[in-house]
């Protein structure tokens, strides 16, 4: 493995401690605190898979609650996993504390662990949950439905000894949206460069001036993120106006290229692919050479961006197929429609 896990990192952290009622208490510190952070043991190339894992306690996709006996299944699997990765003393202490909690409150405690560490996958991924959050993350993830694997991959080249981070929020959320979500659902306040710095009464005048300047840059970035999000979500509704949609895609790309968050780059490929689909849904597209050529160019751009930002090889291969022969999109669409009809129950 290219990973090693360490404790006692000097960062702002949240400590979760179950009390006698199984509740979670929160404490934030700026000094030595017990926590887990995951670092690269050796260099990792951009788009390389850092690790794959199968979820514990399989649930419905995007589930944030454990239904019925699922909480007991997850608790058993989670404890077994913790015993493998934790030191003997901390594992024993955790188990002794949990044994004092009543069954009803223990379920609440287990549910808190599940929801706090949840990703958008059918179950809980405990290895991925050991990666800390950053709004300027160097790793991201995707769910491979066919293989049932959750994949963490590098967004850029990562040097040995560098901490691996993911974002717990969508990359187009503004600072206030991220802060509210993280405080409410993950129980901590982010102080990364995209969120801080924070001014307190002990700040010097120079520090306050620098903070105000940084705040204005954050506000400008928030406007840009909101614009990207609005335009991106409007694209699918613009199938009847491809010229306007094309202008919007170009504006999306320009806005993304002004930002330092590498996770946004994937949306350039995705927006170009949306534009390809808009072109191919025009009336008579299969016989219209002008439309086909425009569609081909969008697929080529999606492929070019995808080779730099898209870790899923199957998605890049799809871009390549459509760039070589755009009409394959219509053939695939017709095949999917027929399959859907066969799978639809007849009255």
Descriptive notes:
The protein starts with a strand and ends with a helix. The model is unreliable at 6-34 and 81-93 (pLDDT under 50). It has helices at residues 70-85, 88-99, 103-116, 175-186, 205-234, 242-257, 266-280, 289-309, 313-324, 328-343; strands spanning 3-7, 13-14, 17-18, 24-25, 28-29, 36-40, 49-53, 132-133, 139-144, 149-154, 165-166. Helix content is 47%, strand content 11%. With 347 residues, the chain is mainly α. It has ten helices and eleven strands.
Order the strands across the largest sheet as they lie in space: 7-10-9
Oligomer: single chain
Overall pLDDT score: 76
- N- and C-termini, Cα separation: 54 Å
3D shape:
globular
Relative helix content = 40-55%
Tally of DSSP β-strands: 11
Structural class: mainly alpha
* Total helical elements: 10
| Biggest sheet features | 3 strands, antiparallel
Report low-confidence residues grouped into runs of 5 or more. 6-34, 81-93
Fraction in beta strands: 5-15%
Outline of this structure?
This protein has 347 residues and is mainly alpha-helical.
Task: Give the key terms.
11 strands; 47% helix; 10 helices; mainly alpha; two-stranded antiparallel sheet; 3-stranded antiparallel beta sheet; 347 residues
């Amino acid at each position: 493995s290219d990973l090693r896990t360490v404790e006692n990192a000097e960062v702002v952290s949240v400590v979760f401690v179950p009390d006698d009622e199984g509740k979670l208490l929160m404490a934030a510190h700026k000094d030595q605190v017990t926590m887990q952070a995951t670092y690269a043991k050796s260099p990792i190339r951009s788009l390389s898979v850092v690790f794959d894992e199968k979820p514990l306690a399989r649930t419905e996709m995007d589930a944030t609650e454990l239904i019925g006996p699922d909480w007991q299944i997850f608790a058993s699997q989670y404890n077994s996993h913790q015993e493998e990765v934790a030191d003997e003393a901390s594992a024993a202490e955790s188990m002794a504390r949990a044994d004092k909690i009543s069954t009803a409150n223990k379920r609440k405690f287990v549910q808190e662990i599940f929801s706090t560490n949840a990703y958008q996958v059918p179950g809980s991924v405990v290895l991925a949950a050991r990666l800390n959050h950053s709004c300027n993350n160097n790793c991201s993830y995707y769910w491979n439905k066919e293989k049932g694997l959750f994949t963490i991959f590098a967004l850029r080249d990562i040097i040995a000894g560098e901490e691996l981070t993911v974002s717990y929020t969508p990359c187009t959320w503004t600072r206030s949206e991220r802060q509210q979500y993280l405080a409410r659902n993950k129980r901590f306040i982010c102080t990364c460069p995209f969120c801080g710095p924070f001014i307190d009464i002990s700040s010097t005048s120079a520090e306050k001036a620098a903070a105000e300047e940084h705040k204005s840059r954050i506000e400008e970035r928030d406007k840009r993120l909101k614009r990207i999000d609005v335009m991106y979500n409007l694209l699918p509704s613009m199938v009847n106006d491809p010229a306007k949609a094309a202008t919007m895609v170009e504006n999306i790309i320009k806005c993304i290229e002004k930002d330092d968050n590498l996770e946004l780059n994937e949306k350039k490929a995705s927006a170009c692919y949306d534009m390809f689909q808009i072109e191919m849904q025009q009336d008579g597209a299969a016989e219209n050479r002008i439309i086909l050529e425009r569609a081909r160019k969008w697929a080529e751009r999606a492929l070019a961006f995808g080779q730099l930002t898209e870790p899923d090889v199957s998605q890049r291969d799809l871009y390549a197929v459509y760039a070589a022969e755009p009409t394959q999109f219509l053939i695939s669409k017709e095949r999917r429609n027929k399959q859907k009809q066969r799978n639809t129950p007849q009255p």
